[in-house]
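Q: Sequence in, structure out?
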Amino acid sequence: MPSGQTHDRITIWALPFITGIALWQTRNGNLTLLVAGGFLFGGLMFGPDLDIYSRQYQRWGWFRFIWLPYQKSLRHRSFLSHGPIIGTTLRVLYLCILLGIAIAICLVLAELLGLIGFTWEELGSQVQRSFIVYAIECWSLFLGMELGAMSHSVSDWTNSAYKRFRKQGVRGLLPRGKMKKRKASSSTTRRRKLQAKPKRTRSSVNKTKSSKSSLKKNISNKNSKK
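A: Exactly. Output:
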């Protein structure tokens, strides 16, 4: 797996290409800045390696403790953290829930102190309106974060695939499920062979001993008659 410094270099080197493609497609400077900013944020601070103690985790500074439940609930390099679209979506939802709880607590305290006056219905309608009005901007930011996260995940997948190819050849590039099935089938055939072999019980051993003793007696009787 590439180091954190390598991931940072990939993000910085890919930034001009992402910015150029975004400007070419949108023809809008604001949307291009959102895509480029989301790409930097997703590659440097909001990427898949937030599920471990990594550079992305350390860059959150005093607020990095908020990712501890995220780390404990997900296995490193799982599909939920490194998968396309779903990884960024889960992190966005997780961060939005935490921010929503913090903002709600601050608003309740401010209302109790008499600093502001509002109703939760008005606040909810304003938030909904803002998402509708700035939907394109929100999707542009999300696209940039997804591209930044995917640059990280793709570099991990290609590096691990290259290492498997060097060790095992083409077999290392095959899905692991097929390899496990082959191993399981070979183990089951071995078990069946072992089960097919007749087991020697005590009764069979006693029978063989008695037959040997009877043969010896017959031979001795014949010799005595002679």
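Residues 178-184 have pLDDT under 50 and may be disordered.
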